[in-house]
Amino acid sequence: MTELAGNAVFLDAEAHRRGLLGEEHLLRSAGKPAPGVELRLALDGEILVRGEQVMLGYWNDPEATATALINGWLSTGDIGRIDEHGYLSVIDRSKDIIITGGENVSSREVEDVLIAAPGVVRVAVVGAPDPRWGEMVCAFIVAAEGDQFDENALVAHGRAQLAGFKIPKRVILIDELPVNASGKVLKNELRARLVE
User: Fold this and answer.
1) Homologous superfamily of the 101-195 domain (CATH)
2) Residues 141, 171: contact at Cβ < 8 Å?
3) What is the reported pLDDT for 108?
4) Over the stretch 94-114, which tens digit does the pLDDT of each residue have?
5) Which residues contact 25 (CB under 8 A, 6 or more apart)?
6) Cβ–Cβ under 8 Å, residues 121 and 142
7) Residue 148 pLDDT
8) Which pLDDT value is given to residue 179?
């Protein structure tokens, strides 16, 4: 994050070696806090960071500063977990968590499963408004060129690996996902399309 003036956590060489020798969970983690960095999770799982490298505030924006910095802790907007050995894993962006029927669904978890389905080239998962459940899981899919995309096969693939409430209730084929200059998917644009 720019607000951290670089990385706050690192997966060191020893953790990489251990990961390559069988402790694969280490390779899926972000690592441990760098020297001088404190890390903790808020009650909702949001990752909070404190240290000398954390910004002092946003230029001429005291409201945004007050929202982002609370008692010296920077709210990252990411949801994570810290294991018993101090390794941080990032689960998802807090704004990308879908709440359906009171259950939290990580869009990233669903994307990781769906991208491995036959005929799927790219995928983005967002929450769509739902009058009964609050939100429903919605998947935007870029299918392989010339491939006959099979939505039923996609859902069956998801059911084999995800709880029922995490299965997309709506699948939308799209030619390409909207991205910013660095290639990050603009999920806010996808949500706006659903509302339209």
Assistant:
1) ANL, C-terminal domain (3.30.300.30)
2) yes
3) 92
4) 888 999 999 999 999 999 999
5) 19, 83, 87
6) yes
7) 78
8) 92
Tokens of 59: 């230029």
Angle made by CA atoms 159, 119, 153, in degrees to the nearest 5: 30
Q: Per residue, what are the HEC states of the chain? A: CHHHCCCCEECCHHHHHHHHCCCHHHHHCCEEECCCEEEEECCCCEEEEEECCCCCCCCCCHHHHHHHEECCEEEEEEEEEECCCCCEEEEEEHHHEEEECCEEEEHHHHHHHHCCCCCEEEEEEEEEEECCCEEEEEEEEEECCCCCCCHHHHHHHHHCCCCHHHCCCEEEECCCCCECCCCCECHHHHHHHHHC
**pLDDT for position 83:** 94
Q: Where do you find CATH 3.30.300.30 in the chain? A: 101-195
- What CATH code would you report for 2-92? 2.30.38.10
Residues of the chain with pLDDT under 50: none
Report the distance separating Cα 101 and Cα 86, nearest Å: 32
